[in-house]
Amino acid sequence: MVLTRRFFLHRGALAVAGTAALPNFLVRSVLAEAEGAPGQRLVVIFQRGAADGLNVVVPYREKNYYAMRPTIAIPQKQVIDLDGFFGLHPSLTPFKPLYDQGHLAIVHAAGSPDMSRSHFDAQDYMESGTPGIKNTSDGWLNRALQAEDACHRMGHDEEHTAFRALALGAEVPLTLAGKISAIALNNVNGFTVAGRGPAPSPAAEAFEAMYADSGDRIFHAAGDETFEAVKMLRAADPAQYAPAAGANYPNSEFGASMRQIAQLLKANLGVEAAFTDVTGWDTHVNQGGVNGQLANRLSDFSASLAAFWRDLGDQAENVTLATMSEFGRTAHENGTGGTDHGHANAMFVLGGQVKGGKVYGRWPGLGNAQLNQGRDLALTTDYRAVLGELVTRTLGAENLEMVFPGARLQREQFLWLV
Amino acid sequence: MDSLRGALAVVLCLNLCMPAAAAGPAPTANSAAASRPSYSSPELQGDARILHALDRFTFGPRPGDVEAVRAMGLEAWFERQLHPANIDEADLDARLAQYPAMQWSVEDLLLRIPSNAIVRQAMKGRIEIPRRGALHAVYEDAIYRLQARQAEKKEKNAGASASPAAPAGEGTTMIGARGMSEDPGAEGNPGMAMGANPVAGMDANSGGVASAAAPVPDDPQAMALAAQMDALDDDPASDAILGLTPEQRVLKLEAMRPAEFEDFLKSLRPAQRAKLTADMVPALREAVDDLENPERLVVQELMAERLTRDIYSNAQLQEVMTDFWLNHFNIYLRKNEQMPYYLVSFERDAVRPRALGKFEDLLEAVAHSPAMLLYLDNAESVGPDSLAAERAKMAAWRRPAKQRQDPPGINENYARELMELHTLGVNGGYTQADVIQVARVLTGWTVDRPQFGGGYVFNPNRHEPGTKKVLGKKIKGNGEMEGRELLHMLATRPATAHFLSRELAERFVSDNPPQSIVDRMAKTYMASGGDISTVLTTLFRSPEFWSKDAYRAKVKTPIEFVVSAVRASDANVENYMPLVNAVRAMGMPLYECIPPSGYRWDAATWVSTGALVDRMNFALNLSANRLPGITVQWQPQTADTTAADEGIPTAQSEEARLEPLLLPGGASATTRAAALDEFARQSAQESAAMRPVLAGRPMLRANSRQAVLARERQDQLLAGLLIGSPDFQRR
After folding, report:
1. Does any domain span residue B664?
2. Residues in contact with A135: Cβ distance below 8 Å, sequence separation at least 6, in sequence order
3. How far apart are CA A58 and CA A39, in angstroms?
4. How many domains does chain B have?
5. B386 touches chain A (CB under 8 A)
6. Which pLDDT value is given to residue A158?
7. 10 Å Cβ neighbour count for A48?
8. Which residues of chain A are within 8 Å of residue B389 when distances are taken between CB atoms?
9. CATH number belonging to domain A6-12+31-413
10. DSSP A182-194
């Protein structure tokens, strides 16, 4: 199969120009005219385990912050100042230039309005996009792609590739589950059946026929997707890939995931929405302050994302990345040098179209009376308002009720960060 | 995926089960089936019932299992499975004898196969290093490696500080990257480093290392050349050691200085390393592995023992339920450096003996297990008004302000998961206030000297005094007994009965089991005092279980797929690491599910594009003997004359022989056709290749060596296609 770049066909010629030929400033001004500008891709990172937002983006002017966290607070002198009130954890050094250049925005006191403190419920709610409703079987990002299709139904080539919705990992996460089939893969180079030769092996062809003809609907569909994806990837020749100069991914699982997402984005395989997750945030015990467990996680996190940004080069113009975590952690540190399950958190939004260099969202304060249930950072921005804006402004999904049913999102709730 | 989920209930594989039902012997009037009234949804009949039971209550049928159950009677077979003590396990026991260390106490394991935490203690002089003998060498070698790694780390950090792109200490501290909360004291750690691939260098999962099946070259020149190459590679020193008797070899290795031993190990090619321990009795092999990497030895044996039981145990229901409870009470292997050691005991002493008993006993055993108390942090929880907290406050005030630490306090982690995941379920009617109260009840439930493998201990000094109120019920201040009262209360709540019954029905019936069967099981749970065997018996006697809607409705999880493939192939496994790596690649690493929720059982989780690729590749590698240390044999092991008598096997005859072994329920017509097409093509190539050899002979000698090898290769492909087929992905 020839790699058709159908992705470009249905997106129009502008995207080709935007990714390669035109100077960035020109692309930016052209794209700014239309919502859901062509060729925009959305990358979503889920920090599983509930990251401690108060030690990630530190409200270092809050006196009570230091009172509540006697052993784990980040001292004023050691935060990376952002705006005179908030500062980044010192392990987030690679984020500072991105913030200064206006590519990185932060939304603080954001998250899911549901009060669940269960990791599993809260992750499911956040991924399904329906906080409080248990039985949603598909994810918000899948529905966003469906909503995008609804907008493009007239007059466009509707073909998409098997890589349209991509998860780096062994399985499709709930965020990407739904009517539009998503592909999950662990390792780009291992993604081939019965050998890595330039042509499909006889066994692969036998399997392809077997799944194509199968009366088992589940495996018939999965087989179709699998063999299309395998062929496309073979054509793209992933073994030849090397990250851009200066893109130094950490030697970690998350680093490997981000490297491969960049690789697949750059290979023009038609990726529109990509997802991966990063674990290790559930710091109940000895989470540390400037150094320690959380600091190590953040080093990996920021170095991976900074390398990803660098690796994308000019294509960064067309990529928007958002991070989230199921909830924040308690404002007080607990009795074991850690923090327990809390409520609001900080989100990062990184991208070529992002109006960065700013901490968005209303700050609720950390006074004892200002805390949620007397223990956590209160929530002032529904994460769906942030994501709703992103899917509207990047993917061009207009029907937000379809993406986040029941949320009744209004454009007035947008923070206008893209 | 949405449409896929919906399809689960719809796709009934009628085309798959019909041939079996039609072709099988006339419904042998199974006694249970005959006496049961008819239900609106058609019930399975005859051999389909046996297959269904084998699919659900075992890790998949082995060749001959259907016949064995038919001979015994399905009811009698199930009854026997409920009483594993009466089941003969001679084969399994012989295989388990490979892992003598798995019988030791946690303290012994930690001392004799030291974790890195223990080695660091020894380095600091906090524990005494054995003066001489095997253990002396184990500690010396481990300390040497740890020191070398620390030096390397220091050097790397010094270099890294100049380059901002590389986070400090990345190479080592990130090793446990997937951990929910890692040991803060953990430094570079080879056992952990193996996390990504616990058997680097021992496995060739991707194929290509078919050394076992490599044909011997019959060209004498080539053989001479190969011998020369070997001679060039060979180090006479390592040859000398490999030439010793096993006992002498171990003594020699123990006598080496650490640096010498490390160099020796590095000088070995993988085949030589395998040879080093290949002829040793298990205890000696363990001794060598202990010298090389103690923690890896524990992790590998833990995983190997689990898979050995899953594959070879005749008490399959006990193993299926052990797997079920290990997932229900999930614990993450790399929470800290002691966890692999504690997991050995958790599985062996707490879970397996109670897998078919009373749930309350199991819950108690888990609540008292150091593994769970450490995994969910209860071991660290201290009542805010307890004696320990008061003392800590006093001590803090005596210190200068700068060194002052917050007094230890309560940790809610276990309390929440105990209700949400272990008993009531997330909708079980508890609140955040209940979580805090339960955490207070359980203060003081901790572990005695966890770094040395100590057991459960109740520490009254940490226990929060006073009356607690959980789910509206008062629990009077009564120390450790409060916790027992709480566990009894949780184990006997109707919400727990329903939550567990639904989870069991999802595992045994379908992703969305009918409410009627869940309710019936929950009723049995309440009536039987939470007896798991009785609840399973209710499931076994429920029409919903035997309905055609349930037949092959479940998609195999990666563990179920891998284990069932090995069982169906009747493979002999001597090295479990390729299987460990396979389930890891498919997204279900053993003991490495990080969140306490465990893995899901549903199709939507496990049917994805990437996973299918892994399943197909595993099937082809397994069937073609490309997994080192795992052998399958597709040609029948009969005297060589019969093959000649029967003539040349055709594609049809080979398929007809292999299909019932691998898919006793019958393959779908499409699967069979695709496999046969490929088989015919391969056969044509093989016979074309063999023609010069056979030219001039009056008759094709079907039992010639070449012909047997060619047939074996064809069978390998055919078997691989059947195992990788859509049909084999269901149970």
Report:
1. yes
2. none
3. 35
4. 2
5. no
6. 53
7. 20
8. 335
9. 3.40.720
10. -EEES-GGG--SS
Determine the structural domain holding residue B642 and report its residue range. Answer: 633-729
| The residue count for chain A | 418
User: What sign for the dihedral angle of Cα B501, B507, B508, B510?
Assistant: positive
β-strands A41-47, A273-278 pairing = parallel
CA distance A57 to A85: 10
Most distant CA pair in chain B, distance: 101
For chain A, domain boundaries = 6-12+31-413
On chain A, the residues whose CB falls within 8 A of the CB of B1 are: 137-138, 142, 172, 177-179, 181-182
Sole residue written with tokens 């008062």: B474
Q: Does A195 touch chain B (CB under 8 A)?
A: yes
- Chain A residue closest in CA terms to B388: A335
Q: How far apart are CA B685 and CA B714, in angstroms?
A: 10
> Alpha carbon of A317 to those of A363, B27, B418: distances in Å?
29, 67, 47
Closest CA to A10 of A161, A119, A120, A189: A161
pLDDT digits (tens, 9 = 90+) for B378-412: 999 999 999 999 998 888 778 766 555 556 789 89
Q: Please check whether residue B479 lies inside any domain of the structure.
A: yes
ipTM above 0.85, yes or no: no
CA distances from A155 to A10, A150, A158, A179, B446 (A): 9, 12, 9, 22, 67
Distance from CA of A412 to the nearest CA of B (A): 32
Whether B481 shows a pLDDT value over 90: the answer reads yes
Give the closest-approach CA distance of A398 to chain B in angstroms: 21
Do B595 and A287 count as a contact with CB atoms less than 8 A apart?
no
Per DSSP, the three-state class of A65 is helix
B647 located within any domain: yes
B623 and B569 Cβ atoms separated by less than 8 Å: yes
Q: How far is A308 from chain B (nearest CA, A)?
A: 12
Distance from CA of B314 to the nearest CA of A (A): 31
Which residues are within 8 A (CB) of B478 and not within 5 positions of it... i.e. 6 or more apart?
B485
User: For residues B240 and B245, what is the distance between their CA atoms, to the nearest angstrom?
Assistant: 11
Does a structural domain hold residue B655? yes
What's the pLDDT at B198?
35
Is there a contact between A202 and B411 if contact means CB atoms under 8 Å apart?
no
Q: Is the pLDDT of residue B213 over 70?
A: no
User: Hey, what amino acid is at A159?
Assistant: E
